[in-house]
Each structure stands twice: as structure tokens, then as C-alpha cells.
Design brief:
The chain is α+β, with helices and mostly antiparallel strands. The chain has four helices and 18 strands.
């Protein structure tokens, strides 16, 4: 009986080594941390920025070597240990440094919660297979599945994220300064509200001044909606403009009323920060800028 127990113990240990590699040090999730005042952000230094969670972002420096014999499974990724002590994710035979995610605090009162928006385009994804219905979209499933479980691996970190009622009404699909824009304020493609931990901003939210955004406007360099694309996001399929001061294109959750393409168009933010441009849900692979809420 003792030998049987020992055999079971060694078998369990062997399986652990197979699935985690020869891990010489555990990966620790980045807990919520407010950055000190004066920390640079893409729109200046007047905002509050925080670090929270982790995601592959910067391509490995040439001076760093990666040991694939030292690995750990994190959500949907396997991370490998670099000679600089950092962890790296592998995509298309290249390595990307796993770094804390930087967020901008948009408001402390998003239905009583603190609303955070990622400061960069972190990945790329198709919106959906066949329609602009956010409730049933691939991107919503990815955000609350793959992204959530990978970026926030520790239960103590993931549990800080509030499940939020996300407004998907027709009103949410219009610019805040002009609720009648786009088909006289109607939108038959609007869907039911959803309860999410991770979500995309709506057309209304991304044009709301109290969140720090300019109202629906003409394109201009330096707009507060501009988001730069990380190396990992580029490798995932996200686009980045080469023009000075411009960023990449990223999805909003709002369906865009467009009779030419019927139920396949979704609102996006362009490289100049212009909100309201449309992308085809089933065709375009576009940048992802996650948002989430924390309890105050």
C-alpha cells in the first residue's frame, strides 16, 4: 500500500513538471498599484494611471536569451524565463516580454465603480463571425475568457474586478454630444445589456468629456482616444500608423447603423483618435483596448 501511495505521489509530481516545465520561480500577477503623480501617459500627466494585471507587450531585446526549459503555464499562454529575469510569451517564433498592464482611470463613478481603460492596444481580434451583436460576439467571449484568465491569473487579483452591467442600448451607440447622429438616433442592431468583467467601450462612452475624451470630432493628431499598438498586438494582427502622433485602430462594442452593410458594421476608433469609423465585424481583425471596473 505504501508503494502504491509513493507511486501515485511521484506520478502527480511528474505530471506537474510536464505541465509547468522546470519552473525555477513562480510568476506573480501584478496587483493594483497607483502610479505616482507625474508619471507620463499618452495624454499628459493630469490623469491617474495604475498598473494592474500582466500581458505580453514588448518584443525581446537582442541581448536577452530565453530558456524554454524554464516555463510556466499562465491562462492560455506558456511563459518562458529570460536571462534578464523576466517572463516571455512566444508568438510566431518570437518572444514578447510579459509586463504589467497600464490603465488610465477614466472615472471613479461608473455606476458607483472605478472605470479603467487600457493605455495601449494590447492584442488584435475579429469582432464576430457574422454580426455586430455584442452580446453574442467572439470578442466579448475572448475578453471574459482568454484575456481575463491570462492577464489576471491570481484569484486575489481577478476577484478585484467587478462584474458590471454594460449598457448596449441604442443610446449607447451614439456620440455623447449628438444622440441623434446615425440614423436619427435609432439603431435596430443594439442588443441587450450584458454583465461583464472585461468589456469594450461604447461609442457614447468614448465621446464623453467627463471621461477625458473630446466630443465627436474631426480627426486630429493628439486626440485623447489615440492608443499606441504594442509589439505583441502588432504580431497578433493589429495595425499601427507610421504617422507622427498617430496610433492604431481599435474596436468599440457599439454596432454602427449602416444600411450598406446591414448588421456587419461596428464602431471603431481610428489612428487619429476619430470615433465612429466603421469596421466589418466578420472580416476585420482590429486592435483591442480592454476596459474594466473595480469596486471603489
Amino acid at each position: 500500500m505504501k508503494n502504491v501511495k509513493l507511486l501515485a505521489l511521484f506520478s502527480a509530481l511528474a505530471l506537474t513538471l510536464i505541465f509547468t516545465g522546470c519552473n525555477t520561480g513562480g510568476f506573480k500577477s501584478t496587483a493594483y498599484k497607483v502610479l505616482p503623480g507625474g508619471t507620463n501617459g499618452t495624454t499628459g500627466t493630469s490623469w491617474t494611471y495604475v498598473l494592474f494585471g500582466d500581458w505580453p507587450q514588448t518584443i525581446k531585446a537582442d541581448s536577452v536569451t530565453v530558456d524554454e526549459n524554464k516555463s510556466v503555464s499562465m491562462g492560455s499562454f506558456t511563459y518562458y524565463k529570460g536571462s534578464d529575469g523576466a517572463w516571455y510569451a512566444k508568438l510566431s517564433n518570437k518572444y514578447y516580454k510579459v509586463e504589467p498592464i497600464k490603465w488610465r482611470v477614466l472615472t471613479d463613478d461608473y455606476n458607483g465603480k472605478k472605470l479603467l481603460l487600457a493605455e495601449n492596444i494590447l492584442s488584435a481580434h475579429r469582432y464576430a463571425a457574422s454580426s455586430n451583436n455584442y452580446k453574442n460576439s467572439e470578442i466579448r467571449e475572448w475578453l471574459n475568457g482568454t484575456f481575463l484568465s491570462t492577464a489576471f491569473t491570481a484569484d486575489s487579483v481577478q476577484n478585484q474586478i467587478a462584474r458590471t452591467v454594460v449598457d448596449n442600448s441604442a443610446r449607447s451607440t451614439k456620440p455623447d454630444a449628438n444622440p441623434e447622429k446615425f440614423n436619427r438616433g435609432e439603431n435596430k442592431y443594439a442588443c441587450e445589456n450584458t454583465g461583464d468583467k472585461i468589456f469594450l467601450l461604447s461609442e457614447q462612452e468614448v465621446t464623453t468629456e467627463v471621461y477625458g475624451f473630446t466630443v465627436y470630432n474631426l480627426p486630429k493628431v493628439g486626440d485623447s482616444r489615440i492608443r499606441m499598438t504594442t509589439d505583441f498586438a502588432k504580431a497578433s494582427g493589429a495595425w499601427q500608423s507610421t504617422a507622427a502622433g498617430c496610433g492604431g485602430c481599435w474596436w468599440l462594442r457599439s454596432p454602427r447603423y449602416d444600411t450598406r452593410y446591414d448588421s456587419n458594421m461596428v464602431c471603431t476608433v481610428g489612428e487619429y483618435g476619430y470615433a465612429g469609423i466603421g469596421g466589418e465585424a466578420s472580416i476585420c481583425v482590429m486592435g483591442v483596448v480592454p476596459a474594466l471596473c473595480l469596486e471603489n
